[in-house]
Design brief:
Length: 303
């Protein structure tokens, strides 16, 4: 297995009308890596994937897979994809659909084994149009893997799946990884990225705002929100230990100021509040959601 880049986006920009979906994004994925693209709605994840799969072209910058233009079908021979919104052929049966896709590859997986691995055996003779949303997702991921691709790109593969179906897919994707395959996967869920990716790229508003190991990114999104009523100035609070950022103050029903501090270590921040004799009341601490953590990371990146 080589360690050459297998998928590259180099200073890529892509707009839709006046909206910039990707703004000077660069990313290099090496053979054998598993990369999770994480970010809130509209961050640009699907647009980046569409470029890497050759479904769209960048306005500026370049994209390549296996050293060539992904719009050239020859460069997609070793690529398996499940885009976010894909239709299955309504009238083809599940097994026929697997056969059809497998026929495009030199050394595909065995059909029956594929059906069994993805829990599709009992659905083999059903028309794809009659499958539930979750069953269709399972089939689509099976189709992405049936050609034994060297690179698999999945856009939110488990959205709409129940836990059991999700676990089945995760197992199959882990097997693919163990076999040396390269994986790029988008998700809104840290748990999914944790299960499948070793490297995490966080996107927001068309830019890459963080790129690191899973451990590194988990530490960065592990944020506590500390809310308190206080007349203190923002600059005093910003200096407290472990504070990532402050959100704009809100006005309480009584006309006071309610401040939200995002902190990597709520205990250290609160201890310092007390030690410094900061005037505060109504203290609340809770774990930031992933969306809140993204916002904190973005505002930190901007400052
Ligand atoms: N075909 C299109 N026409 C117009 N705007 C688009 C189009 N595709 C994407 N956009 C816009 O580009 C931005 C990035 O969208 P994209 O789908 O890449 O984000 P995402 O991170 O994949 O979001 P989600 O998690 O919701 O799928 C969004 O503001 C979206 O509205």
């Amino acid at each position: 297995m080589s360690s050459s880049p297998i998928a590259v986006a180099d200073h890529v920009t892509r707009s839709f009308g006046k909206h910039t979906a990707l703004d000077d994004v660069s990313l290099e994925v090496t053979a054998g890596e598993s990369v999770g693209l994480l970010g809130p709605n509209g961050a640009g994840k699907s647009t980046l994937i569409a470029l890497l799969c050759g479904l769209r072209r960048p306005d500026s910058g370049t994209v390549s897979i296996f050293g060539g233009d992904p719009r050239d079908p020859r460069n997609r021979r070793l690529l398996g994809v499940t885009p976010q919104a894909t239709a299955v052929p309504e009238t083809l049966k599940v097994r026929e659909t697997i056969d059809l896709v497998a026929a495009h590859f030199a050394d595909p997986l065995d059909r029956d084994e594929t059906l069994q691995k993805f829990g599709l055996e009992s659905l083999a003779d059903k028309q794809c149009g009659a499958l539930s949303g979750g069953q269709q997702r399972r089939l689509l991921v099976a189709l992405a893997l049936v050609g034994r691709p060297e690179l698999v790109i999945l856009d939110e593969p488990t959205t709409g799946l129940d836990v059991e179906a999700r676990d089945t897919l995760w197992d199959q994707l882990r097997d693919y990884r163990t076999g040396g395959g390269t994986l790029i996967i988008t998700s809104h869920y840290l748990a999914e990225i944790e299960a499948l990716a070793e490297r995490v790229v966080v996107m927001d508003k068309g830019s890459v705002i963080a790129d690191g190991s899973l451990t590194d990114i988990k530490r960065r999104v592990d944020i506590r929100r500390i809310q308190l009523n206080t007349p203190e100035l923002e600059c005093t609070l910003q200096d407290l230990p472990s504070v990532v950022n402050l959100e704009p103050a809100e006005t309480t029903a009584e006309g006071g100021r309610r401040i939200t501090l995002n902190s990597h270590d709520a205990d250290a921040t609160v201890r310092a509040l007390v030690q410094r004799d900061v005037d505060f009341s109504d203290l609340e601490v809770h774990t930031a959601t992933l969306e809140e953590a993204f916002l904190a990371m973005t505002s930190k990146a901007a400052s």
